[in-house]
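Q: Convert this sequence to structure tokens.
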Amino acid sequence: MEFYRCLDSINPTNDQLMLWAYDLDLYLTDQDEDLVLHSNQYIATLFQLACDDNCPKKDYCFSILKHHFQHLLAKRDIDQISEAMTMITEVQAVADANARGWLADLFWISALIKCPRRLNFEEMQKIASFIIGTDNEIPTLTTVSQTGYLHFEQSFELYKDHLYIHQSTSDWKYSHITPVNL
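A:
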């Protein structure tokens, strides 16, 4: 029989988060603990943990952080994104090369919301990969709409995510499960 401990906290403090991150047998909640951490208030701590080679939940923290930013960028919520970017810049001296590369892409994509410009196909594919892609798969370009949006699709086991990117304006629209007509 396997034993584990649970903090049973849907709003953990940063101290609880640090305790959780270094203990493989400790859970924040009985289920969906990753969703509990989808909040800007945890960004700096999650990023710090994702860069710490001594953290046993390093990869898990990084996946939670990436998923949170995928949601923020998909919604294009400028206020939430600006707040999140401020939080993530609090982490100094990022030594992890994977995290540095991800952070550079995050800054580049976030800047497109404030300063839109024309995109080439590789840039559009990079955005689609960042927002709806997985570590192992690149989203597939499926169609180009009459209004100029390129439709990228990522298949998962039970659903598909759809991202529509306009080449001329760098605008994008996200749809979970159901494709939309643009």
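The chain has a mean pLDDT of 92.
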